[in-house]
Amino acid sequence: MTLTTKEDGGRERPACPSCDYIHYGDFSIGCSGVVIRDGKALLVQRGWQPFAGSWQIPGGYAEHDEPLSLAVEREVLEEAGIEARVRDVIAFRHAIGGGMGGPTTNIYVMFRLDPLGNEEPRFDGDEIANAGFFSLDEMAAMEAVQGLSKWAIEKALRTGEGYGLQPEPTGPLAGRPGWQLFGLQH
User: Fold this and answer.
1) Whole-prediction pTM value?
2) How far is CA 182 from each of CA 29, 32, 69, 166, 173, rounded to the nearest angstrom?
């Protein structure tokens, strides 16, 4: 069946003419993790396009049924072989742009994670060409370090404990099924 348009929320939207379905857009949620060890941040080098050869903090997309804090922990482990746990949220980016299938909206949440061990990064040599812990001075001498990653690393290094949005461990909303709540702590 071909979609038509229907006004909803003050704008025309694609809609099904025979049922109540309205298409509100294409959305994705990404996440990345700043992992600091001994004053150095974990970076991975992309092996695939787009931006093959560039360095960035590890990250990717959250699955539709995956808590965001677990998604970033999974991405750090998958891309760099580093086990780490979420400490707090540093920032998020909201991007509106053209995707492969048309206009999309993306929310990208940048977390600060604490490493659980002292192991060296491990990577697959395919999707991730290289990985390591680097200081800001070392990054300054490297080619193709992603600007957003450097910005997040600088934020993580310059703000101390308790400045980011932290997982809410207690309270009436903290245990709600399917929810993950992050907030400022006192």
Assistant:
1) 0.88
2) 16, 16, 10, 5, 10
